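stage 2 :: seqdesign
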C-alpha cells in the first residue's frame, strides 16, 4: 500500500510507531525501530519523518512537527482541476447530472471535458458558484453562473479520427497512388536473381539508379578499387577463399559429408544435445531455432537485418496496422502541452462550484458504491494515440510479467483495461521489445493504445482482476508503477530474433557453418545480412556449401571451434488495440446479470 501511494504521489508524511514499549530489551526495540525507519525510507519520499513516541514530551514534538510541516505539492494534480463531489442531483428527463464541491488543482472551464472516475468522460453545460454551505463568513455575494458552454465551443468527445488512407469505396487515395509511383521509380543495384523483398535489404542511399532498359550488374563480381579494403576490416571474400582453402577441399571435409547424409531426426537430436550442453539461452534469450521442415525465408518473412540497431534505417510508416490510421500524432508535443496548461477558466481554486454534466445515464447517477471524484481534462487528453510509460517493477511481485498480459492501468484520475507490451528503457527513436518483465529487471517502457495524458502523470499497473474478485473487493496486485512519456506513434519497438549456427570446419578466418539453415535457398536469401560470433568476431556469408544449408563465411579475425555464429533479425512489434475504459456501472450490471443466470 505504501508503494502504491508513493507512486501516485503522496504529500509530506509523518509515521508514528506504536507498541515499542512492549519490548523489554532496549536492543530489540532499537533494532525494530531501525528496521521500520529503513523500510519507510525506501517507500516514502525524502521529506517524511518517523517517530517512536513513548512520553508526553515525544508526543508534543510530533504535534509541533505536524504544525510546522509544509505540504509537498503534487504537480500532476496541480495542473489539472479536480474535486470531491459533496452533493449531486440528477434530472432524468434531460439526462443531466449536477455535482457540487470545492475545486482543487487549477481553474476549470465549461468548454472542456470532465471525467468521473470509474464512470467515464462527459461534456459540461455550465459552471456556477452559489452559496458556500460551509462558509463562516456572512453577507458574502456569490457570482452565480460563471460560464455556460454551447455546442459549438465545447470540446468534442471524439477519441479517434477517420483513416486518411481509406476512402468510403475502399479504393486507393491520391496519396497512395503517388507513393506507389515513387516506389516503382526507384532502381537499386542488387545481386542478380534477388527478389523484391531481398532488394529492400540493400541501402537505397548511395546506390546507383538504373533506367528500365539497363541491366543490373552482379555486385559480387565487381572489382572496383574501392572494394579492395572494407572499413570493417574485411578483405575481398573471393580473394580470401582462393588464398586459404578451395571449395572442393571444404566439400571433402568429414563433418560436412556427415551433415549432408544426416536425416532430419538425427539433426534434431544433435541440435538438442548441443543446446543442453551449451548456454545459448542464458547468453541470449532471443535465440530461436530455425525450422527444419519449413523454409526459413518464409518463417522469418516479416524480419529483416540491420547493420546497426541504433543507426539502421527503418521507415516508421511502413506496414502499419489499420489502427494507426485512427490515432492522433501530436506534432510539437511540448508546445501543445504548454498551450493546454495555459488554459484558464472562470472558476478558480478553492471555490465551491456547481457543475452541470450532459448525457449522464441513470446508472451512473444512482451509483453509490464509492465516493465520486470529478476531474477536468486538458485539451486533447480525450484523443487516442500510442502511449508510452516509464515503468518500475514492484519488488514485492515475485513472478515475471509477459508482454500483452491483461492489466488494469491507473493513469492519473482515469482507469483502463489494457494489454501493454514491454521494451527496454532506452532513449532514442527505437527500443528492443521484451517478451517478459523479469524479476531481476527494474525498469521497462510499456506501450499501449489509449487517451493522451500530459506529463507529469503517475501510472499504476495492476494485475487485471476477474469479475468475481471485483465483486468481492479483493485487493489488487500491483505489478509496476511509473510515469507517462510523450505519446509517439513513430517509436520503433523492434523484436530481435537471433539465428545461431555451429562451426563445422575452420581454416583461419574462413568457416563453414551448420545448423543455421537447412537448404541452400535460405542461405542465398539471408546472404546480405552480417554475422557475428559470441566471442565478438564479425563476418559475412560468401556462398552456400552443398544443398543442406551449410554455408561458407569469412570473419575479420580467427574463429575458435567452440564459438557460436549468430545472425540478428528484427521485426517491428505493435501494441494490441484492446484498451477499454474502466466503467464501474457496466461491471455491476454484468455481475447482476450473471447472478440472475445462476439463480435461474
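stage 2 :: out
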Amino acid at each position: 500500500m505504501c508503494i502504491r501511494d508513493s507512486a501516485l504521489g503522496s504529500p509530506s508524511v509523518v509515521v508514528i510507531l506504536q507498541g515499542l514499549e512492549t519490548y523489554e530489551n532496549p536492543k530489540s526495540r532499537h533494532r525494530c525501530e531501525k528496521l521500520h525507519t529503513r523500510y519507510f525510507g525506501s517507500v516514502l519520499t525524502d521529506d517524511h519523518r518517523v517517530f517512536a513516541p513513548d512520553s508526553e514530551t515525544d508526543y508534543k514534538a510530533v504535534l509541533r512537527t505536524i504544525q510546522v510541516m509544509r505540504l509537498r505539492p503534487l504537480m500532476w494534480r496541480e495542473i489539472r482541476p479536480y474535486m470531491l463531489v459533496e452533493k449531486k442531483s440528477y434530472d432524468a428527463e434531460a439526462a443531466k447530472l449536477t455535482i457540487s464541491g470545492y475545486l482543487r488543482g487549477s481553474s476549470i472551464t465549461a468548454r472542456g471535458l470532465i471525467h468521473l472516475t470509474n464512470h467515464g468522460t462527459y461534456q459540461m453545460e455550465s459552471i456556477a458558484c452559489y452559496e458556500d454551505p460551509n462558509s463562516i463568513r456572512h453577507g458574502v455575494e456569490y457570482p452565480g453562473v460563471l460560464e455556460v458552454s454551447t455546442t459549438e465551443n465545447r470540446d468534442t468527445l471524439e477519441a479517434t479520427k477517420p483513416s486518411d488512407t481509406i476512402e468510403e469505396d475502399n479504393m486507393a487515395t491520391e496519396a497512395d497512388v503517388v507513393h506507389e509511383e515513387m516506389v516503382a521509380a526507384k532502381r537499386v543495384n542488387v545481386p542478380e536473381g534477388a527478389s523484391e523483398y531481398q532488394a529492400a535489404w540493400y541501402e537505397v542511399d548511395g546506390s546507383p539508379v538504373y533506367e528500365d532498359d539497363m541491366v543490373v550488374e552482379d555486385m559480387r563480381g565487381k572489382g572496383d578499387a574501392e572494394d579492395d579494403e572494407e572499413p570493417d576490416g574485411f578483405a575481398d571474400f573471393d580473394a580470401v577463399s582462393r588464398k586459404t582453402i578451395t571449395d572442393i577441399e571444404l566439400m571433402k571435409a568429414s563433418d560436412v559429408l556427415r551433415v549432408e547424409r544426416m536425416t532430419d531426426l538425427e539433426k534434431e537430436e544433435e541440435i538438442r544435445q548441443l543446446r543442453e550442453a551449451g548456454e545459448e539461452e542464458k547468453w541470449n534469450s532471443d535465440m530461436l531455432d530455425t525450422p527444419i521442415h519449413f523454409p526459413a525465408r518464409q518463417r522469418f518473412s516479416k524480419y529483416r537485418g540491420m547493420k546497426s540497431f541504433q543507426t539502421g534505417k527503418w521507415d516508421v510508416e511502413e506496414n502499419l496496422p489499420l489502427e494507426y490510421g485512427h490515432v492522433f500524432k501530436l506534432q510539437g508535443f511540448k508546445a501543445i502541452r504548454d498551450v493546454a496548461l495555459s488554459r484558464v477558466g472562470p472558476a478558480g481554486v478553492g471555490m465551491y462550484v456547481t457543475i452541470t454534466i450532459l448525457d449522464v445515464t441513470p446508472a451512473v447517477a444512482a451509483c453509490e458504491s464509492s465516493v465520486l471524484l470529478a476531474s477536468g481534462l486538458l485539451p486533447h487528453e480525450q484523443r487516442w494515440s500510442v502511449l508510452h510509460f516509464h515503468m518500475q517493477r514492484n519488488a514485492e511481485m515475485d513472478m515475471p510479467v509477459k508482454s500483452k498480459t491483461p492489466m488494469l492501468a491507473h493513469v492519473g484520475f482515469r482507469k483502463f483495461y489494457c494489454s501493454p507490451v514491454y521494451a527496454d528503457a532506452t532513449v532514442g527513436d527505437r527500443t528492443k521489445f521484451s517478451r517478459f518483465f523479469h524479476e531481476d529487471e527494474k525498469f521497462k517502457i510499456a506501450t499501449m493504445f489509449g487517451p493522451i495524458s500530459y506529463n507529469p502523470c503517475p501510472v499504476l499497473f495492476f494485475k487485471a482482476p476477474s469479475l468475481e474478485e471485483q465483486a468481492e473487493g479483493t485487493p489488487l496486485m500491483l505489478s509496476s508503477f511509473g510515469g507517462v512519456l510523450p505519446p509517439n506513434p513513430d517509436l520503433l519497438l523492434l523484436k530481435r530474433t537471433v539465428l545461431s549456427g555451429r562451426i563445422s570446419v575452420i581454416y583461419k578466418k574462413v568457416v563453414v557453418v551448420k545448423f543455421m539453415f537447412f537448404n541452400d535457398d535460405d542461405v542465398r536469401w539471408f546472404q546480405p545480412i552480417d554475422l557475428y560470433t559470441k566471442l565478438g568476431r564479425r563476418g559475412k556469408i560468401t556462398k552456400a556449401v552443398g544443398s543442406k544449408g551449410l554455408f561458407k563465411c569469412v570473419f575479420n579475425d580467427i574463429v575458435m571451434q567452440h564459438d557460436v555464429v549468430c545472425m540478428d533479425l528484427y521485426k517491428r512489434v505493435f501494441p494490441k488495440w484492446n484498451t477499454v475504459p474502466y466503467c464501474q456501472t457496466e461491471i455491476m450490471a454484468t455481475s447482476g446479470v450473471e447472478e440472475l443466470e445462476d439463480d435461474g
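stage 3 :: structure notes
- The longest strand covers residues 492-507.
- The CA atoms of residues 86 and 101 lie 5 Å apart.
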